[in-house]
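Look over this today:
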Amino acid sequence: MLPVVALVGRPNVGKSTLFNAITRTRDALVADVPGLTRDRKYGYARIGPRPCVVVDTGGLVEATQGVERLMAEQTLKAVEEADRVLLIVDARQGCVPADLHVADVLRRSGKSVMVVANKAESLDPEIAGADFHQLGFGPPAAISASHKEGIEDLLQAALAGLAVAPDQPGEVAAGEGEIRVAVVGRPNVGKSTLINRLLGEERLVAFDQPGTTRDAVFVPFERDGQRYTLIDTAGVRRRARVSDAIEKFSIVKALQAIEEANVVIGVLDAQDTVAEQDASLRGLINEQGRALVIAVNKWDGIDPSQRDSIRDGLDLRLDFLAWAPVHFISARHGTGVGELMTSVRSAYRAAMKELPTKDLTRALEQAIVMHQPPLVRGRRIKLRYAHQGGRNPPVVVIHGNQTQHVPDAYRRYLENHFRQTFRLKGTPMRIEFRTDDNPYSDRRNELTPRQQRKRVRLIKNRRAGTGKR
């Protein structure tokens, strides 16, 4: 196992900045706003002599209620699973009562703790750490996360004495066969609650307040022998309603998560009508070519007499996503969650399915027999053969003549035919048309002017029926 290093401290001391510096990523959302990080975020160290897992945590405060209490619980879980804890403090502000509170919590945990005096650029290391000896964890390490000063020495000291296998990799990529699942939707529809239900633990901060999740959080887990990475995302609202800079960055992170995912679970609130933003967000998922499973959450709170009208509203507003399976669930109670993940696996297999050329061409021929392409200027569009051009989403490339004139209606007909033939439920698909080159198109350019004139006379005479050459 890789050693685990947790970054802990009061709000706004630079924990997320240090996390990004250690992992050489921009995974953690960073801004000069206290309390920005709320969930545990994991990453792999990519500098230093040995690898480790780094955990970013929310700011630890004395509050015992509301979202701050849930944040504190997440931080304490990170401390519990860590091999070493880095207590991050602000070298420019000195030791404040909030630092003493965090130190007291960590002292009672019994973990090995190092004090890290951040924001120490242009300061003498001895002076930067002098005020923090009173915390009782030994000499502080002076660093600057934003300037990446002292990071490598910090990691060497943090990993000292921790056993690591010599052949352990420095970073772990998504494994073969792992399904990356992004959970997206409007604020407060139950995305974090759904992930917690799947994991069987309170892994993410779930609170009855819009905007609780601010960053994209990657959580690996395994179910029925299949490995997943669940990606919790911030709620996405209409652009006109988004004025806060933090929310804008959170939405960017959510859109990036959609791009990185194999399958997207689009969560709707059954107690709200299907809004224009819901349709727009799912349209974006369709444009990105991601497999999609729709989860209508909080279904347990809907009166049975209203359920048919809600289903009709979904069919009307999301008719362009008729290929996406819909599940009516309760993330809080777990109703329908198992069937939801079954559809996620099926959608992933459909998105990654291999379509042999002979089978695609045969399906194309069957489609043409049932419904021929239209005429263009008196000439029939000819579609000759098809082959696969990509996966996730499946791309079918069709070759023929005059394919640039294929109407959208016939394109949709072929898409539905291929979807039914190959059982591509849960994934969008793309059809590309290519016009084959005429092998005789350049023959005239190869003839001399005299040969070209003779060829023209021959064609005219044959049409006139004289037979003269």
In short: Residues 8 and 447 are 80 Å apart (CA to CA). The chain has a mean pLDDT of 80.
